[in-house]
Design brief:
Length: 108
């Protein structure tokens, strides 16, 4: 995975995404794709775990940058104090936000 503007590696994020993609290929036989819009470029990983936990492959969700921003916005809006998801475990909130973006059609 490389930065689109200059073709240079993103560094640590690129290494993490490369590791995740390798495990994904071993487990599913597929390259990493955005969980909401299915594109395979400019991907980021969103962690479903809580602070202080060990990061496992299944705790990461691959999203393109646009969908990642939409998911982050949904998490911020609904997870804030007084929001519908306030106090919800992060793993469930991230999965719910990904499904929300997928169903809303905002990703396309």
């Amino acid at each position: 995975m490389t930065a689109p503007e200059d073709g240079q590696p993103y560094g640590y994020r690129s290494q993490l995404l490369s590791w995740w993609d390798g495990v994904n290929q071993d487990r599913s036989g597929n390259n990493a794709r955005c969980a909401t819009c299915d594109i395979d470029t400019d991907l980021v990983l969103i962690w479903k775990g809580e602070a202080g936990q060990v990061i496992y492959w299944h705790d990461l969700v691959a999203l393109c940058r646009r969908c990642g921003q939409l998911v982050d916005q949904v998490l911020a809006d609904r997870g804030s104090p007084g929001g519908r998801w306030y106090g919800m475990p992060r793993s469930l909130a991230v999965e719910s936000a990904v499904l929300h973006v997928l169903q809303s059609g905002e990703h396309g």
